[in-house]
């Protein structure tokens, strides 16, 4: 009797194992494809110290960021749009997890410790160990900031990735910021910048004489195209300016403009984008040098992984999702022909040369971009 019971039990166990073997592949097939992930470093040594840093962000949590744990699944389908604040919090979460809670980066929302214009000086002087910011705040102090989003320097996310990760680009940027006592870790991708207008843009000639919203280097760009650059406040004034015809369009970020209702008052979006708006992770050099190498490696891996993910997955997913949504609402997306794209790119060269003339390092970066597009 015992022998029969034993055989029955063994048989049941075998049946369960067989069924499990058959079902597991099916379950695995339903799992989402992971985004580019960092190469895991070995588990940190027990004797490594506990370290706490302060990181000032230039952004606030968006509505999608307001979660109890600020969690972010790195699959393009997991979110429609994410913000720089959430990206920074994801880096901090991953670093803390991989160091068994020993390296803790405390994130401060926009303005909590320092305003945007104070970020660079704050990280230079060590008032905070790290910033997740936007180089437009300090281009008057460090002109290398102009080079992160040179217009018409790439045509696809894959091409942008190749330029930023498979050339000397990051080494030049890192070397330049080191002169200011700051360590450059990585950029992070925020969204495409493109023409959003109330008239179709099929050629360079279509831009001449138009009144376009643009700021900074983008204002120089549209002026070079024969348009008039108009500066208004993006969040508070641009909607009304578009509605009243004070501007006829501008160089804008669709993912940001969607939140401000700008798609209600424009009719056309041009592709390919002229550039990607990018944030940047910078660290005080003394703080960086004090950090154990294991922690340096982990922080670098996480920042670079989320940058790659943003360029190749998150930003393209967000932009194409918006295109699907607003095309159904009557907004026309126009893709420039290769011939017209080449003409507009050629018209950018005086601006590229202007940026190159600002510093030897800027000139090196511009050479990287020119080599990428085949310009000598």
Kindly describe this structure.
The protein is of the alpha/beta class. The chain has one domain (51-373): D-Maltodextrin-Binding Protein, domain 2 (3-Layer(aba) Sandwich), CATH 3.40.190.170. The chain is 44% helix and 16% strand. The protein has helices spanning 2-29, 84-98, 119-125, 157-165, 169-178, 217-224, 238-244, 254-260, 285-290, 293-327, 338-347, 349-356, 360-373; strands spanning 51-57, 103-108, 130-133, 182-197, 211-213, 228-230, 249-252, 268-271, 275-284, 332-335. The strands form two sheets. Strands 1, 2, 3, 4, 7, 8, 9 and 10 form an eight-stranded mixed beta sheet that branches. Residues 1-35 and 63-81 have low confidence and may be disordered.
**Rg on CA atoms, Å:** 24 Å
In terms of DSSP E residues, the strand content is 15-25%
Q: How many structural units, i.e. domains?
A: 1
Shape: globular
Distance between the termini: 89 Å
> Can you identify the CATH class?
Alpha Beta
| CATH architectural category | 3-Layer(aba) Sandwich
Corresponding CATH superfamily: Bacterial extracellular solute-binding protein, family 7
Major pleated sheet: 8 strands, mixed
Q: pLDDT below 50 for ≥5 consecutive residues: which ranges?
A: 1-35, 63-81
Number of separate strands: 10
Helix content: 40-55%
Order of helices and strands: HEHEHEHHEEHEHEHEEHHEHHH
Helix count from the secondary structure assignment: 13
Summed over residues and divided by their number, the pLDDT gives a mean of 84
Using the coordinates shown, work out and report the CATH topology.
D-Maltodextrin-Binding Protein, domain 2
Structural class: alpha/beta
